[in-house]
Amino acid sequence: MPVRKFAAGMSVAVLAVCVAVAPAPASPAAAGREVSRHECRTPSVDRFQQWLASGEGTTVPATGSLLTPVRGGHGVDYAARVSFLDAEWHVVVLWLANRFEAQVDLSGSAGFWLTYSATDDVHVQLRPASHWSGGDKWLTLVPATGGRTVTRFFSFAPEAWTTLPELGAPAYPFDAALEEARGLVFVGKTPNELEFRGLEVHGYRPPCL
Q: Could you say which of 2.60.40, 2.60.120, 3.30.70, 2.40.10 is the CATH number of the domain covering 51-201?
């Protein structure tokens, strides 16, 4: 995968940014509209099929799909699970259109709802197709949950996204990342147990492969 290796052994100050953003729109699930996790013929989480370990950092699994069958209320469901090991950068990737070559215009989207659990903080980057590789991306904090499963809304308002000095500042505006979004990339430098149970992007429905 063409993602530049993050340098291990460097110190990082985790930035928690408090911003005032517009209220989150109601998610399809909260509004009572049906949201199916079983619309694709192959394993997925809310139609997102490509949750991948990139091979960067010591993770379990080390590479390949993070999707794992779990027992849900309607039979077998799927979750994306990964363990980050050691004090080094770890990278896991979600392709928004389920293909690496594809990109999505999210400029009209308010943001996304993520249902997840995490034992430590992690960051999520919005990576555009034209600047896919490297760590110098716009990102936002995904707070630790103490291992509890929660659903949080992450706004696409530009003021809700920042950079980490250790990873560098992107050479393009956040609006450009929205217009040609290829993936969400989760990065963290501490041991962590992560599980993703749901992802709904406002105004966007991913195609099945």
A: 2.60.120
